[in-house]
Amino acid sequence: MSSEMLPAFIETSIVDKKQDLSEDQEASQKPKLGVEPISKRQMKKLIRQKQWEEQRELRKQKRKEKRKRKKLERQCQLESNSDGNDRKRVRRHVVHSTLRLIIDCSFDDLMVLKDIKKLHRQIQRCYSENRRALHPVQFYLTSHGGQLKKNMDENDKGWVNWKDIHIKREHYSELIKKEDLIYLTSDSPNVLKELDESKAYVIGGLVDHNHHKGITYKQASDYGIDHAQLPLGNFVKMNSRKVLAVNHVFEIILEYLETRDWQEAFFTILPQRKGAVPTDKACESSSHDILCVGVDGGLDSDSSEEEYSRNELTSSHEEEKQDKENNTESMVNSLPH
């Protein structure tokens, strides 16, 4: 090789080496096939999907048991009615209460669409429970309009055909005499002992995650109407804050009208997640550590069934959170890599 060709050969070799090096770097930066990284969101989705699949049989079994229970209830009703006119026989046992129960929907502008939809579902539940109750109340839906009416028009057009319900655009104060009104709010210092069926009880139709605490009490005070809270603290001790959904309050009142027993009404309606126990048992279980003191009673109709105060985390919540984290770790470890 001549001395003139040598520099060109060296330069070409250097260029080839640089190209090979850049290609190696690009290849190393490319993710290997089948080992793509998984984000936290994807991992959570995989865990939820796996849990859903694992609980499929359990859900199926629960649905089967529910169908059997309803079938048995229908058979019992048929057996108890001897004249063959079963549906009419059953309806004869229904005694309509004169008590008026109002859901105040005047808080429409304080809720986002997600919470409006939750309120709509709770109202649907109230309507269906009142229709099949043994002592149905005079059901009122007041200040009906805005986002709530729009959502009902779009997703539940059949509401215009609802029976045994008074759906009004007017505020409840325009429909019922002030002396007949009692607003149910946990901030009231007054505790109900009995329900007066000549009165009209108002439930605040508000799902707000506790952002507007005390607003129903303030409204009752501003309008100069009576207010009270359900005697929840007299009968029930709960692990979580006493936050009840609109439909829970409604159903508790329906249950009380049937049984005339507050404790039975509370324990029939309250969800299991609330960890509710009778106050006397709660006192006995804690007597080894501290003296049993009175429990502050009340319901919070300003918040939904699903909403808890973010600032009130008890030790039981912390333990539950830790258990969930441990379960999540074990699920992640069991997923195929």
From TrEMBL:
Active site positions: D208
Provide one Gene Ontology cellular component.
nucleoplasm
Query: Please, which domain of life does this record's source organism belong to?
Result: Eukaryota
InterPro entries for this protein: MT_TRM10-typ, MT_TRM10-typ_sf, TRM10/TRM10A, tRNA_m1G_MeTrfase_euk
* Positions of region (Disordered): 17-87, 298-337
GO-annotated molecular function: tRNA (guanosine(9)-N1)-methyltransferase activity; tRNA binding
Q: Where is the composition biased (Basic and acidic residues)?
A: 307-327
Q: What class of enzyme is it?
A: transferase
Q: Ranges for the SAM-dependent MTase TRM10-type domain? A: 86-277
Which PROSITE patterns does UniProt cross-reference here?
Answer: SAM_MT_TRM10 (PS51675)
Where are the compositionally biased (Polar residues) regions?
Answer: 328-337
Reaction(s) catalyzed by this protein? guanosine(9) in tRNA + S-adenosyl-L-methionine = N(1)-methylguanosine(9) in tRNA + S-adenosyl-L-homocysteine + H(+)
One BP term from GO: tRNA N1-guanine methylation
Bias (Basic residues) occurs at 59-72
What's the EC number here?
Answer: 2.1.1.221
Matching entries from Gene3D superfamilies are given as: 3.40.1280.30
| CDD domains documented for this protein | Trm10euk_A
PANTHER family attached to this UniProt entry: TRNA (GUANINE-9-) METHYLTRANSFERASE, TRNA METHYLTRANSFERASE 10 HOMOLOG A
- Function, as annotated: S-adenosyl-L-methionine-dependent guanine N(1)-methyltransferase that catalyzes the formation of N(1)-methylguanine at position 9 (m1G9) in tRNAs. Probably not able to catalyze formation of N(1)-methyladenine at position 9 (m1A9) in tRNAs.
Fill in the subunit field for this protein. Answer: Interacts with tRNA.
**What's the name of the protein?**
tRNA methyltransferase 10 homolog A
Q: List the source organism.
A: Carlito syrichta
